[in-house]
Protein backbone atom coordinates (compact mmCIF):
# COMPACT_ATOMS: atom_id res chain seq x y z
CA UNK A 1 0.00 0.00 0.00
CA UNK A 2 1.21 3.50 -0.83
CA UNK A 3 1.93 5.40 2.40
CA UNK A 4 1.17 9.04 3.08
CA UNK A 5 4.93 9.68 3.22
CA UNK A 6 5.15 8.38 -0.36
CA UNK A 7 2.40 10.79 -1.44
CA UNK A 8 4.12 13.67 0.37
CA UNK A 9 7.42 12.79 -1.33
CA UNK A 10 5.65 12.69 -4.70
CA UNK A 11 4.18 16.15 -4.04
CA UNK A 12 7.59 17.54 -3.12
CA UNK A 13 9.07 15.96 -6.25
CA UNK A 14 6.54 17.29 -8.77
CA UNK A 15 5.78 20.65 -7.15
CA UNK A 16 8.45 22.61 -9.13
CA UNK A 17 6.94 21.40 -12.40
CA UNK A 18 3.17 21.73 -11.86
CA UNK A 19 0.52 24.30 -10.98
CA UNK A 20 -1.31 24.27 -7.67
CA UNK A 21 -4.63 24.53 -9.44
CA UNK A 22 -7.58 26.58 -8.24
CA UNK A 23 -10.54 25.26 -6.27
CA UNK A 24 -13.67 26.97 -7.62
CA UNK A 25 -17.31 27.11 -6.56
CA UNK A 26 -20.46 28.18 -8.39
CA UNK A 27 -23.69 29.20 -6.68
CA UNK A 28 -25.93 28.28 -9.62
CA UNK A 29 -24.54 24.75 -9.75
CA UNK A 30 -24.81 24.47 -5.96
CA UNK A 31 -28.47 25.49 -6.18
CA UNK A 32 -29.07 23.00 -9.00
CA UNK A 33 -27.41 20.19 -7.04
CA UNK A 34 -28.78 21.10 -3.61
CA UNK A 35 -25.26 20.68 -2.22
CA UNK A 36 -22.04 22.66 -1.71
CA UNK A 37 -19.59 21.71 -4.48
CA UNK A 38 -15.88 22.52 -4.65
CA UNK A 39 -14.22 21.89 -8.02
CA UNK A 40 -10.48 21.14 -8.11
CA UNK A 41 -9.67 22.52 -11.56
CA UNK A 42 -7.03 20.26 -13.08
CA UNK A 43 -8.14 21.54 -16.48
CA UNK A 44 -5.78 24.41 -15.57
CA UNK A 45 -2.90 21.99 -14.93
CA UNK A 46 0.18 21.68 -17.14
CA UNK A 47 -0.86 19.71 -20.27
CA UNK A 48 -4.46 20.56 -19.36
CA UNK A 49 -5.00 17.54 -17.10
CA UNK A 50 -4.13 15.98 -13.72
CA UNK A 51 -2.09 13.31 -15.50
CA UNK A 52 0.95 15.62 -15.45
CA UNK A 53 1.31 14.78 -11.77
CA UNK A 54 1.66 11.00 -12.15
CA UNK A 55 3.74 11.18 -15.31
CA UNK A 56 6.23 13.53 -13.71
CA UNK A 57 6.45 11.58 -10.45
CA UNK A 58 7.25 8.38 -12.33
CA UNK A 59 9.66 9.79 -14.92
CA UNK A 60 11.61 11.92 -12.45
CA UNK A 61 12.26 8.69 -10.52
CA UNK A 62 13.22 6.80 -13.70
CA UNK A 63 15.91 9.43 -14.25
CA UNK A 64 16.95 9.54 -10.59
CA UNK A 65 17.35 5.74 -10.50
CA UNK A 66 18.98 5.58 -13.96
CA UNK A 67 16.45 3.00 -15.15
CA UNK A 68 16.66 3.79 -18.87
CA UNK A 69 17.25 6.31 -21.63
CA UNK A 70 13.75 6.46 -23.17
CA UNK A 71 10.12 6.31 -22.04
CA UNK A 72 7.07 4.59 -23.50
CA UNK A 73 3.40 4.27 -22.61
CA UNK A 74 -0.02 3.70 -24.14
CA UNK A 75 -2.82 6.21 -23.72
CA UNK A 76 -5.91 7.66 -25.37
CA UNK A 77 -4.65 11.15 -24.70
CA UNK A 78 -4.02 12.83 -21.37
CA UNK A 79 -1.46 10.36 -19.99
CA UNK A 80 0.20 10.42 -23.40
CA UNK A 81 0.60 14.18 -23.07
CA UNK A 82 1.81 13.81 -19.48
CA UNK A 83 4.54 11.36 -20.46
CA UNK A 84 5.58 13.42 -23.48
CA UNK A 85 5.70 16.57 -21.33
CA UNK A 86 7.61 14.92 -18.48
CA UNK A 87 10.08 13.23 -20.84
CA UNK A 88 10.81 16.58 -22.45
CA UNK A 89 11.46 18.10 -19.02
CA UNK A 90 14.21 15.56 -18.36
CA UNK A 91 15.52 15.32 -21.93
CA UNK A 92 14.47 11.74 -22.74
CA UNK A 93 12.78 10.56 -25.97
CA UNK A 94 9.21 9.30 -25.58
CA UNK A 95 7.34 6.74 -27.71
CA UNK A 96 3.57 6.88 -27.22
CA UNK A 97 1.16 4.21 -28.43
CA UNK A 98 -2.21 5.87 -29.06
CA UNK A 99 -5.47 4.48 -30.47
CA UNK A 100 -6.20 5.85 -33.93
CA UNK A 101 -9.54 7.14 -32.57
CA UNK A 102 -7.90 9.38 -29.94
CA UNK A 103 -8.91 13.06 -30.26
CA UNK A 104 -6.77 15.01 -32.72
CA UNK A 105 -6.23 17.78 -30.16
CA UNK A 106 -4.53 15.26 -27.86
CA UNK A 107 -2.38 13.75 -30.62
CA UNK A 108 -1.30 17.22 -31.74
CA UNK A 109 -0.28 18.07 -28.17
CA UNK A 110 1.76 14.87 -27.80
CA UNK A 111 3.64 15.66 -31.00
CA UNK A 112 4.05 19.23 -29.82
CA UNK A 113 5.98 17.97 -26.78
CA UNK A 114 8.34 16.14 -29.13
CA UNK A 115 7.17 12.55 -28.65
CA UNK A 116 6.76 9.94 -31.39
CA UNK A 117 3.23 8.52 -31.77
CA UNK A 118 2.62 4.91 -32.80
CA UNK A 119 -1.05 4.52 -33.72
CA UNK A 120 -2.98 1.32 -32.97
CA UNK A 121 -6.51 -0.05 -32.98
CA UNK A 122 -8.70 1.20 -30.09
CA UNK A 123 -8.36 -1.92 -27.93
CA UNK A 124 -6.31 -2.56 -24.80
CA UNK A 125 -4.70 -5.59 -26.45
CA UNK A 126 -3.52 -3.48 -29.41
CA UNK A 127 -2.17 -0.80 -27.07
CA UNK A 128 -0.24 -3.31 -24.98
CA UNK A 129 1.14 -5.06 -28.08
CA UNK A 130 2.28 -1.69 -29.41
CA UNK A 131 4.16 -0.94 -26.19
CA UNK A 132 5.85 -4.37 -26.26
CA UNK A 133 7.08 -3.68 -29.79
CA UNK A 134 8.42 -0.26 -28.75
CA UNK A 135 10.28 -1.78 -25.78
CA UNK A 136 11.83 -4.46 -28.02
CA UNK A 137 12.88 -1.82 -30.56
CA UNK A 138 14.10 0.96 -28.27
CA UNK A 139 14.63 -0.46 -24.77
CA UNK A 140 12.28 2.22 -23.41
CA UNK A 141 10.97 2.13 -19.82
CA UNK A 142 7.20 1.69 -19.53
CA UNK A 143 5.33 4.28 -17.46
CA UNK A 144 1.89 2.67 -17.28
CA UNK A 145 -1.13 5.01 -17.28
CA UNK A 146 -2.42 3.69 -13.94
CA UNK A 147 -0.97 0.29 -12.96
CA UNK A 148 2.08 1.87 -11.32
CA UNK A 149 2.53 2.97 -7.70
CA UNK A 150 4.59 5.99 -8.74
CA UNK A 151 1.85 7.18 -11.08
CA UNK A 152 -0.85 6.62 -8.45
CA UNK A 153 1.17 8.53 -5.83
CA UNK A 154 1.53 11.43 -8.26
CA UNK A 155 -2.20 11.50 -9.02
CA UNK A 156 -2.88 11.43 -5.26
CA UNK A 157 -1.41 14.92 -4.93
CA UNK A 158 -4.48 16.51 -6.56
CA UNK A 159 -6.77 15.40 -3.73
CA UNK A 160 -4.07 16.39 -1.23
CA UNK A 161 -4.19 19.97 -2.50
CA UNK A 162 -8.00 19.93 -2.61
CA UNK A 163 -8.25 18.87 1.04
CA UNK A 164 -5.54 21.31 2.16
CA UNK A 165 -7.13 24.24 0.31
CA UNK A 166 -10.83 23.66 1.03
CA UNK A 167 -11.34 20.70 3.35
CA UNK A 168 -9.52 21.41 6.60
CA UNK A 169 -11.74 23.84 8.55
CA UNK A 170 -14.92 21.98 7.55
CA UNK A 171 -14.06 18.52 6.19
CA UNK A 172 -15.64 17.26 2.99
CA UNK A 173 -18.50 14.83 3.37
CA UNK A 174 -17.63 13.34 -0.02
CA UNK A 175 -14.80 13.60 -2.57
CA UNK A 176 -15.53 12.48 -6.12
CA UNK A 177 -13.46 11.58 -9.17
CA UNK A 178 -14.18 9.84 -12.46
CA UNK A 179 -12.82 6.33 -12.98
CA UNK A 180 -11.21 4.77 -16.03
CA UNK A 181 -8.13 2.72 -15.19
CA UNK A 182 -8.40 3.84 -11.58
CA UNK A 183 -5.10 5.68 -11.09
CA UNK A 184 -6.70 8.97 -10.06
CA UNK A 185 -9.45 7.28 -8.05
CA UNK A 186 -6.91 5.11 -6.21
CA UNK A 187 -4.72 8.08 -5.39
CA UNK A 188 -7.72 10.18 -4.36
CA UNK A 189 -9.00 7.39 -2.10
CA UNK A 190 -5.60 6.95 -0.42
CA UNK A 191 -5.07 10.66 0.18
CA UNK A 192 -8.59 10.99 1.59
CA UNK A 193 -8.06 7.95 3.82
CA UNK A 194 -4.93 9.54 5.30
CA UNK A 195 -5.98 13.21 5.52
CA UNK A 196 -9.76 13.12 5.96
CA UNK A 197 -10.73 9.60 7.06
CA UNK A 198 -14.40 10.41 7.71
CA UNK A 199 -14.84 11.65 4.12
CA UNK A 200 -16.41 9.18 1.69
CA UNK A 201 -14.94 8.71 -1.78
CA UNK A 202 -17.38 8.12 -4.64
CA UNK A 203 -16.54 7.59 -8.32
CA UNK A 204 -18.45 8.42 -11.46
CA UNK A 205 -18.30 6.16 -14.52
CA UNK A 206 -19.92 6.30 -17.98
CA UNK A 207 -22.60 3.70 -18.72
CA UNK A 208 -20.77 3.16 -22.00
CA UNK A 209 -17.58 2.02 -20.26
CA UNK A 210 -18.97 0.45 -17.09
CA UNK A 211 -16.26 -1.98 -16.05
CA UNK A 212 -15.21 -0.46 -12.71
CA UNK A 213 -18.67 -0.72 -11.19
CA UNK A 214 -18.80 -4.42 -12.13
CA UNK A 215 -15.28 -5.02 -10.77
CA UNK A 216 -16.19 -3.15 -7.58
CA UNK A 217 -19.17 -5.44 -7.08
CA UNK A 218 -17.51 -8.76 -7.98
CA UNK A 219 -14.06 -8.20 -6.48
CA UNK A 220 -12.23 -9.13 -9.68
CA UNK A 221 -11.24 -7.14 -12.76
CA UNK A 222 -14.17 -7.19 -15.19
CA UNK A 223 -14.61 -5.90 -18.73
CA UNK A 224 -17.38 -3.50 -19.68
CA UNK A 225 -20.32 -5.12 -21.51
CA UNK A 226 -19.78 -2.56 -24.31
CA UNK A 227 -17.62 0.48 -24.98
CA UNK A 228 -19.42 3.52 -26.39
CA UNK A 229 -19.08 6.87 -24.64
CA UNK A 230 -18.12 10.49 -25.25
CA UNK A 231 -15.86 10.26 -22.17
CA UNK A 232 -12.84 9.08 -24.17
CA UNK A 233 -10.51 9.26 -21.17
CA UNK A 234 -12.45 6.61 -19.23
CA UNK A 235 -12.49 3.66 -21.61
CA UNK A 236 -9.81 1.54 -19.94
CA UNK A 237 -10.38 -1.20 -17.37
CA UNK A 238 -9.05 -1.32 -13.82
CA UNK A 239 -5.94 -3.27 -12.87
CA UNK A 240 -5.61 -5.66 -9.92
CA UNK A 241 -3.57 -2.92 -8.21
CA UNK A 242 -6.15 -0.16 -8.60
CA UNK A 243 -9.09 -2.44 -7.85
CA UNK A 244 -7.55 -3.49 -4.52
CA UNK A 245 -7.17 0.15 -3.42
CA UNK A 246 -10.64 1.07 -4.68
CA UNK A 247 -12.30 -1.83 -2.86
CA UNK A 248 -10.53 -0.86 0.37
CA UNK A 249 -11.23 2.87 0.31
CA UNK A 250 -14.04 3.79 -2.13
CA UNK A 251 -17.67 3.83 -0.97
CA UNK A 252 -19.53 3.67 -4.28
CA UNK A 253 -19.29 3.91 -8.08
CA UNK A 254 -22.20 5.56 -9.91
CA UNK A 255 -22.84 5.32 -13.64
CA UNK A 256 -24.24 8.05 -15.89
CA UNK A 257 -25.35 8.21 -19.51
CA UNK A 258 -23.69 10.21 -22.29
CA UNK A 259 -26.66 12.59 -22.32
CA UNK A 260 -26.16 13.22 -18.58
CA UNK A 261 -22.42 13.73 -19.11
CA UNK A 262 -23.01 16.21 -21.94
CA UNK A 263 -25.58 18.15 -19.88
CA UNK A 264 -23.19 18.41 -16.90
CA UNK A 265 -20.33 19.43 -19.18
CA UNK A 266 -22.46 22.14 -20.79
CA UNK A 267 -23.58 23.40 -17.37
CA UNK A 268 -19.95 23.90 -16.30
CA UNK A 269 -19.06 25.65 -19.59
CA UNK A 270 -22.07 27.97 -19.33
CA UNK A 271 -22.04 28.75 -15.61
CA UNK A 272 -18.37 28.50 -14.61
CA UNK A 273 -16.99 29.81 -17.93
CA UNK A 274 -14.29 27.13 -18.02
CA UNK A 275 -13.52 24.43 -20.58
CA UNK A 276 -13.73 20.85 -19.34
CA UNK A 277 -13.69 17.61 -21.32
CA UNK A 278 -16.48 15.00 -21.10
CA UNK A 279 -14.61 12.73 -18.66
CA UNK A 280 -14.36 15.65 -16.21
CA UNK A 281 -18.14 16.08 -16.15
CA UNK A 282 -18.92 12.52 -15.05
CA UNK A 283 -18.86 13.10 -11.24
CA UNK A 284 -21.05 16.22 -11.52
CA UNK A 285 -23.44 14.26 -13.72
CA UNK A 286 -23.67 11.64 -10.96
CA UNK A 287 -24.43 14.32 -8.35
CA UNK A 288 -27.19 15.81 -10.50
CA UNK A 289 -28.62 12.36 -11.24
CA UNK A 290 -28.73 11.34 -7.55
CA UNK A 291 -29.43 14.66 -5.87
CA UNK A 292 -31.27 13.05 -2.98
CA UNK A 293 -28.10 11.17 -1.96
CA UNK A 294 -25.95 14.32 -2.00
CA UNK A 295 -28.40 16.87 -0.63
CA UNK A 296 -26.92 19.38 1.81
CA UNK A 297 -23.43 17.88 1.78
CA UNK A 298 -20.00 19.40 1.17
CA UNK A 299 -18.53 17.71 -1.89
CA UNK A 300 -15.13 17.99 -3.52
CA UNK A 301 -14.97 17.13 -7.23
CA UNK A 302 -11.77 16.70 -9.21
CA UNK A 303 -12.19 18.18 -12.68
CA UNK A 304 -9.71 15.99 -14.47
CA UNK A 305 -8.93 17.96 -17.63
CA UNK A 306 -9.89 20.34 -20.39
CA UNK A 307 -8.44 18.73 -23.51
CA UNK A 308 -11.57 18.68 -25.62
CA UNK A 309 -11.78 18.71 -29.40
CA UNK A 310 -13.61 21.98 -30.04
CA UNK A 311 -14.72 20.72 -33.44
CA UNK A 312 -16.59 17.78 -31.89
CA UNK A 313 -18.51 19.14 -28.93
CA UNK A 314 -21.35 16.91 -27.61
CA UNK A 315 -23.75 19.87 -27.45
UniProtKB/TrEMBL annotation:
Pfam families: PALP. SUPFAM superfamilies: Tryptophan synthase beta subunit-like PLP-dependent enzymes (SSF53686). The keyword GTP-binding does not apply. GO terms for biological process: D-serine biosynthetic process. It comes from the Bacteria. Residues 15-305 form the Tryptophan synthase beta chain-like PALP domain. PANTHER family: SERINE / THREONINE RACEMASE FAMILY MEMBER, SERINE RACEMASE. Belongs to the ACC deaminase/D-cysteine desulfhydrase family. This is Threonine/serine dehydratase. It comes from Spirosoma foliorum.
